[in-house]
């Protein structure tokens, strides 16, 4: 079994209104060193697959077909084999 972790965020060219509000709030709390904030989504998906290659291919397909909006979002992922208890 594998555990896929998918991190979704806006593409650099897309304005992130929630991230901007968070940055402003941090400045109001005297965290003046904050230059930017990017807000996003995080998914953990347990996968049954015969090997890492299959699990990775499935995770990428899930991300690209459902988890992200390819017009405005990008993603990164990590995948690890996990022990079944």
TrEMBL record:
<dbReference type="GO" id="GO:0005524">
    <property type="term" value="F:ATP binding"/>
</dbReference>
<dbReference type="Pfam" id="PF02700">
    <property type="entry name" value="PurS"/>
</dbReference>
<comment type="subunit">
    <text>Part of the FGAM synthase complex composed of 1 PurL, 1 PurQ and 2 PurS subunits.</text>
</comment>
<dbReference type="GO" id="GO:0004642">
    <property type="term" value="F:phosphoribosylformylglycinamidine synthase activity"/>
</dbReference>
<comment type="pathway">
    <text>Purine metabolism; IMP biosynthesis via de novo pathway; 5-amino-1-(5-phospho-D-ribosyl)imidazole from N(2)-formyl-N(1)-(5-phospho-D-ribosyl)glycinamide: step 1/2.</text>
</comment>
<protein>
    <recommendedName>
        <fullName>Phosphoribosylformylglycinamidine synthase subunit PurS</fullName>
        <ecNumber>6.3.5.3</ecNumber>
    </recommendedName>
</protein>
<keyword id="KW-0067">ATP-binding</keyword>
<keyword id="KW-0547">Nucleotide-binding</keyword>
<comment type="function">
    <text>Part of the phosphoribosylformylglycinamidine synthase complex involved in the purines biosynthetic pathway. Catalyzes the ATP-dependent conversion of formylglycinamide ribonucleotide (FGAR) and glutamine to yield formylglycinamidine ribonucleotide (FGAM) and glutamate. The FGAM synthase complex is composed of three subunits. PurQ produces an ammonia molecule by converting glutamine to glutamate. PurL transfers the ammonia molecule to FGAR to form FGAM in an ATP-dependent manner.</text>
</comment>
<dbReference type="InterPro" id="IPR036604">
    <property type="entry name" value="PurS-like_sf"/>
</dbReference>
<keyword id="KW-0963">Cytoplasm</keyword>
<comment type="similarity">
    <text>Belongs to the PurS family.</text>
</comment>
<dbReference type="GO" id="GO:0005737">
    <property type="term" value="C:cytoplasm"/>
</dbReference>
<keyword id="KW-0436">Ligase</keyword>
<dbReference type="GO" id="GO:0006189">
    <property type="term" value="P:'de novo' IMP biosynthetic process"/>
</dbReference>
<keyword id="KW-0658">Purine biosynthesis</keyword>
<dbReference type="InterPro" id="IPR003850">
    <property type="entry name" value="PurS"/>
</dbReference>
């Amino acid at each position: 079994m594998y555990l896929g972790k998918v991190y979704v965020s806006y593409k650099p060219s897309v304005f992130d209104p929630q991230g901007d509000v968070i940055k402003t709030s941090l400045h109001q709390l005297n965290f003046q060193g904050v230059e930017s904030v990017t807000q996003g989504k995080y998914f953990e998906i347990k996968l049954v697959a015969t090997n890492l290659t299959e699990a990775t291919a499935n995770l990428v397909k899930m991300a690209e077909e459902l988890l992200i909006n390819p017009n405005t979002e990008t993603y990164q992922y990590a995948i690890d084999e996990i022990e079944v208890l």
